[in-house]
Write a structure and sequence with these properties.
- There is one protein chain.
- By secondary structure, the chain is of the alpha+beta class.
- Helices cover 43% and strands 15% of the residues.
- A two-stranded antiparallel ribbon has the order 1-2.
- It is elongated, with a radius of gyration of 31 Å.
Length: 137
């Protein structure tokens, strides 16, 4: 309920203790500002992680080609391994009970120059299953 005496006492106290009132208000405002800034930074961090890792599943397996370390059946050591589309078909055929979606992902980077300007750019090509819905955990 509205009590005139309570409000009168509050305003009298504010007028008597101007510095304490100002410092209390400033502290509350600073606390709210810090909360808003930290909450915004936390949301920005979540959005950044979702942007960078949003197209990766939680149960994903990447296979990268490399180089052999020992010779095998007449092949030399230190030769480069190359994948082709038949490897993807073999994975889909032989491991269909374990693999729901499979898609190739090829990344190539390079230095691009134009007149006096240059920069490194990366291009990534993906297969059609990249936009398939993700299964819930």
């Amino acid at each position: 309920m509205f009590s005139r005496d309570n409000w009168k006492e509050i305003f009298e106290t504010i007028h008597k203790n101007k510095l304490r009132t100002f410092l209390s208000g400033f502290t509350v405002a600073l606390g709210i500002l810090i909360f808003v800034v930290l909450f915004g930074m936390g949301n920005g961090l979540v959005n950044t992680f979702n942007e960078f890792f949003g197209d990766d599943a939680t149960n994903v397996l990447y296979v990268f080609p490399g180089r052999t370390t020992i010779p095998y059946k007449g092949y030399k050591s230190n030769r480069s391994i190359e994948f082709d589309n038949s490897d993807l078909a073999d994975i889909n055929k032989n491991f269909s009970m374990f693999v729901e979606y499979s898609t190739p992902r090829i990344s190539r980077g390079g230095l691009v120059k134009y007149k006096n300007e240059s920069n490194n750019y990366t291009t990534r090509a993906v297969g059609p299953h990249i936009n398939m819905p993700k299964r819930p955990l």
